[in-house]
Amino acid sequence: MSTDRAEAREVTEGHGTAEAQEAPRRLSSARVLDIDPLLDDPGTRIVVCCGSGGVGKTTTAAALGLRAAERGRKVVVLTIDPARRLAQSMGIDSLDNVPRKVKGTEGDGELHAMMLDMKRTFDEVVEAHADPQRAAAILANPFYQSLSAGFAGTQEYMAMEKLGQLRARDEWDLIVVDTPPSRSALDFLDAPKRLGSFLDGRLIRLLTAPAKLGGRAGMAFLNVGMSMMTGTIGKLLGGQLLKDVQTFVSAMDTTFGGFRTRADATYKLLQAPGTAFLVVAAPERDALREAAYFVERLAAEKMPLVGLVLNRVHRSGAGRLSAERALAAAENLEDPRIVDQADGKAGLRNSPDTYGSSQPPASETAAAASEEGSPADAERPVDRLTAGLLRLHADRMQLLSREQRTHDRFTARHPEVAVAEVPALPGDVHDLAGLRDIGNRLAAERPEHPEHPEHPEHPEHPEHPEHPEHI
Q: Are the beta carbons of 449 and 443 closer than 8 angstroms?
């Protein structure tokens, strides 16, 4: 019994404070990603946070932007998150297509934030490359309105377009990009090329051909072929839609040829020195499988990957107590027949050895003890509470074990990828203080940081006076 309670004390002491809960026990021995040198380097101009949905990309991007700003840089964070959590956490009522300065930051730098307005960005491209009359015709075209509002790949294309605009202005030291949420993290790389190829494709150019050839001569030249083609397409798409498309491409003929070129230019910007990709994931099988696929794709596309940010990593300050030991102790406390709690000897109280002896049956002994107000009965509620705590700890240790195995598989597959771990938080991040905390946790991965277990001032370091070896 004393052993079971001692193990319970180890759990309560290990989980009783926030500091203990966050004891930095890394999931693996992978290379540590050092965030601060990346953010401090004036040569780093773009940081792209990418990964599958629901792994904390938006929070990570905002935390990195805040940390860079408070270390002296002028930063803009571009998010495509429709939940608008970024605006709330930065104390801004709403975000739009114009960078808004964030108040309440510390240090000499500046932090701005904006949310991609996909349609407005597309409108800006049209307005910048067409005269006012032609631009008005394009913006009013039904086909263009559908294309700019929700055509497949438009969001990713416009995210890259906006990134190119921000970089060309050269107003910010650092641009942090939160990539669009999508079913596949690869959409951010693939969709702009697909859309550019569509807008510059054979069908669009064929529809544009009469306008480019000019007047009635051009139409007469292509009259027979165009009639056959438009008749077929009209049956498939509908006559009005075809007319809208033809009107659209006729108005856009001066800007066609630029879509693919612009997408390629931004793509090269992502490959250039000064750009850094951070893959963001959670210690879950699907998220890390997607992260591994993205790492391989970035390498194939020669994109500059700097590391992996692993969010929501669970830790325990009582890691020396295994799940098996915790469960065994809980069972001992929950069933008094397993261990003779009076003298600490193992054996069933209702064992056949008690029959025929001068000792009364265990049930009679328990009843007599109950009538006398036995201390054991007074301890039963405490034992049940303690057993529940031990089972919770066992669940936590089993979760840690699963996360460890998942992370180890990723590390074995990609040992070259540096990793920064962010411990799981009890709640959502909703203000600058929470974002600042995330940034501090990322920085705490550095061995020279006092919160890192390899630092001499950390309690888990062998040279620390509070290390178990010295107690």
A: yes
Find out whether 312 and 282 touch, Cβ atoms under 8 Å.
yes
Contact (CB, 8 A) for 445 and 38: no
Q: What angle do CA 231, 232, 235 make, to 5 degrees?
A: 85
- Torsion of Cα atoms, 231 then 243 then 218 then 212, to 10°: -130
Secondary-structure breakdown of the chain: helix, strand, coil percentages, each rounded to the nearest 5: 55, 10, 35
Q: Give the tokens for residue 151.
A: 């055509």
CA distance 233 to 81: 37
| Mean pLDDT of the chain, nearest integer | 75
Pair of tokens at residue 55:
């792994």
Residue 137 has pLDDT above 90, yes or no: no
Q: Look up the pTM and report it.
A: 0.73
CA distance 440 to 449: 10
- In our burial notation (b when 16+ CB lie closer than 10 A, e otherwise), range 31-60 reads ebbbbbebbeeeebbbbbbbbbeebbbbbb
Q: Which residue has the tokens 């990134």?
A: 163
Strands 419-423 and 74-79: unpaired
Give yes or no for a contact between 241 and 137, defined as CB atoms under 8 angstroms apart.
no
b/e code 419-436 from CB counts within 10 Å (16+ = b): bbbbbebeeebeebebbb
CA distance 59 to 439: 10
Distance CA 398, CA 405 (A): 11
How far is Cα 283 from Cα 281, in angstroms, rounded to an integer? 7
- Tell whether the model's pLDDT for residue 200 goes beyond 90: no
Backbone φ, ψ for residue 252 (5° rounding) = -95, 5
Q: Which of 339, 341, 279, 329 is nearest to 304 (CA)?
A: 279
Q: Give 27's pLDDT tier (boundaries 50, 70, 90).
A: low
Residues 6+ apart with CB under 8 A from 13: 20, 317, 318
What is the C-alpha to C-alpha distance for residues 209 and 226, in angstroms, rounded to an integer? 10
Give residues with Cβ within 8 angstroms of 391, minimum separation 6.
326, 327, 330
- Contact criterion met (CB below 8 Å) for 46 and 174: yes
CB 452 within 8 A of CB 341: no
Segment holding 220, helix H or strand E: helix 215-221
